[in-house]
Amino acid sequence: MKSKKPNIKYVEWKSAEELHEASLIWISELKFIKDEQRFLNDLIENYTMQLISEKTFEKSSKIINELNLKRKEVNPLLKKVIKHCNELTILVDGIDQPEEEKKYKENHQELLVEVSAYFDNYKQTKRRIFDLIKTIIKTGKQKRLLN
């Protein structure tokens, strides 16, 4: 599944409140992803033996490496979004600074693309982990039924 490029032209017409709200949503989602990654790590630990079996080792190691990469990317991205959110004062301070305001909106556009890509890639990785664990659980149930 290819991730779609978001329509970034709308940012120029958004108000400061709408840009702030978007940034707060990104922060919330990134914090949730950090918690979710802890859950996924626990899930992987619970099924380690099945994940390292000959049948699934190559596939599972690739997916786990992707998750580790996503885990390393989330903190810098979260810090970047928080910093961006804190810089919103440029738009609401009442001082006319067209260059700084334009730069803020350009940064918001770039961040929109970066955050959207991260969310799409993370969701794909998470889906692959769940599919792999689901297959392992089904195989385990089938073996128990046969015994």
Total DSSP E strands: 0
Structural class, judged by helices and strands? mainly alpha
Distance between the termini: 39 Å
Main sheet attributes: strand count, strand direction, barrel closure: none
**Treating each run of at least 4 consecutive H or I residues as one helix, how many helices?**
5
Low-confidence stretches: none
Give an overview in words.
- It is rod-shaped and about 75 Å long.
- It is 80% helix and 0% strand.
- Helix 1 (16-46) packs antiparallel against helix 3, helix 1 (16-46) runs parallel beside helix 5 and helix 3 (57-86) runs antiparallel to helix 5 (98-146).
- With 147 residues, it is mainly α.
- The chain has one domain (13-146).
- It has helices at 16-46, 48-51, 57-86, 89-92, 98-146.
- It contains 5 helices and no strands.
List keywords for this structure.
0% strand, mainly alpha, 147 residues, single chain
Give a quick summary of the entry:
With 147 residues, this protein is mainly α.
Strand-helix topology:
Elements: H1 16-46, H2 48-51, H3 57-86, H4 89-92, H5 98-146
Helix pairs in contact: 1-3, 1-5, 3-5
